[in-house]
Amino acid sequence: MSAVWNLAGPAPATFPRLEGSTDVDVAIIGGGLTGLATALILCDAGERVAVIESHTVGSGSSGGSTGNLYSTVSNGLAGIRKKWDQDTVNKVVALRRQALDDIQRNVERLAGHCHFERRPLHFCIQSNVDHYGKTLEEEYEVSVAAGLQAEIVDRPHGLGMSLRRVLRIENQAQYNPLEYCYGLAKAVQHEGGLIFEHSPVAEVDAAEGKVTTADGAVVRAGQVVFATHTPKGISMLQAEMEVYREHGIAAPLNSTDGEFPRGIFWTLDGFHSVRSYEHEGQPYIVVVGQKHETGHGDLGEGHFEELGEFARSHFDVAAVSHRWSAQQYQSADLLPYVGRSAHDNVYVATGYSADGLVWSEVAAQVISHQILGRKDIDGGLLNPRRFTPGKSAKAWLEANTKVAKHLSTDRFTVEKMDDLHRVEAGEGKVLKIGGDSYAVYRSPEGELKTLSPICPHMKCMVHWNSADKSWDCPCHGSRFDVEGEVLEGPAYKPLEKRSPKL
Ligand code: FES
Predict the structure, then answer these.
(1) Which residue, 168, 318, 357, 460, has fewest beta-carbon neighbours within 10 Å?
(2) What pLDDT, in 10s, does the model give residues 408-461?
(3) Can you tell me the distance from the alpha carbon of 170 to that of 166, in angstroms, rounded to the nearest whole number?
(4) What residue segments make up the domains of the chain, in order of their start?
(5) CB of 86 within 8 A of CB of 146?
(6) Whether the Cβ atoms of residue 161 and residue 124 lie closer than 8 Å to each other
(7) Closest atom of ligand 1 to CA, residue 489
(8) Whole-prediction pTM value?
(9) CA 254 to CA 257: how far, in whole Å?
(10) Which parts of the chain register pLDDT below 50?
(11) What is the CATH topology of the domain spanning 411-488?
(12) Number of the ligand 1 atom closest to the C-alpha atom of 477
């Protein structure tokens, strides 16, 4: 199954594979929202741009998001104030509010409505637990201080869910992120930008400004932008981030007459994100949650079953019609890393946490302003070169202790098995066979696929993800399909094909 956003139909345009050699001013790796929005601004400014996408436009996290757009952040502004201060919160809100306005302007320019609607956002409490009430009040106070139009409502009605208390923030928005991606791609093409699909990048030579794909095609550019959700290859930033997966479902409402949630709803005590989406007059309930670290806590179908159960317990819904998953990178100091990297001609955008739809537009503005030599719009707040040990040391230490633990212990806990018939159809396992380790998957048709389980990024061992049928690396979030091909994350190379001698 795929994300509910695909109801809008297939991509209106497809783009060629990169071949031969191409010279441009700016090479952008990644055809999601960050890459396409950056490309559009640069094309408008007269730059020659090439966007190089490993799969298809919008097929990564951009098309697997919630479609929620907001000036606040999903983990709460109070957390940022605790680590930084109210002034930083104010800057974050100002940048995100401006980005939301920019997205609305783009939607109008693209002449497609992309299901864009201004809607309120609700932080919700369903239980009587005091702790959540205090969290809500603190969040209210920080939000108002940052200039957001917020109020607390007790026992609200008409929202389609039974809620005890709600912090409501006006004038946020929702859209279909995939439709928006498609619209941006068309606009980039219209403005003379080049877009290439099915062109995975295998190497970037920053000094030469040379980007080479797995097929050996080359783009030469003065500036290179990594719009890949996390930088490809080895980067210090990967040591600063934790990687999570989150899951989503959508189900059609049986009755279209009743109340259903119009707006963004986040339940603080259940950690669910709820919204509705309408397609050809049929409303759907969308529930996102079940967040867990990538490569850990895999419940397989259980993630989707829990979300479906939540939807059924609050709404009169039919069977789940869509389900999907997406990845998040959370920085240690709670702000994303956006802008010029350690190499002056290379730019990165990462650490968006669950708030990437708006951060992607902020990143597009920050990076394009830097490339064009315009005034810095973030005042260095998101600078990837920043050093904030007081704010990030604890999270940094925890993340890197985990990586060290995976590197040192995962190899010694692999199950031994010489009889591969015990791997069932649809199942994946890392197994020790005759002294070597293998990532073993049996397809529903019974075909066995065996790979090296060693992640080519920095040699951690991959884990099976039965919810998404992929091999996921617990260290920095590289993911591979059952053939070993890179789905996402920092790894450039696929998992090595390896067959056991039985
Ligand atoms: Fe870094 Fe696998 S993603 S070792």
Answers:
(1) 318
(2) 777 767 777 777 888 899 999 999 988 899 999 999 999 999 999 999 999 999
(3) 12
(4) 411-488
(5) yes
(6) yes
(7) 3
(8) 0.95
(9) 9
(10) none
(11) Rieske Iron-sulfur Protein (2.102.10)
(12) 3
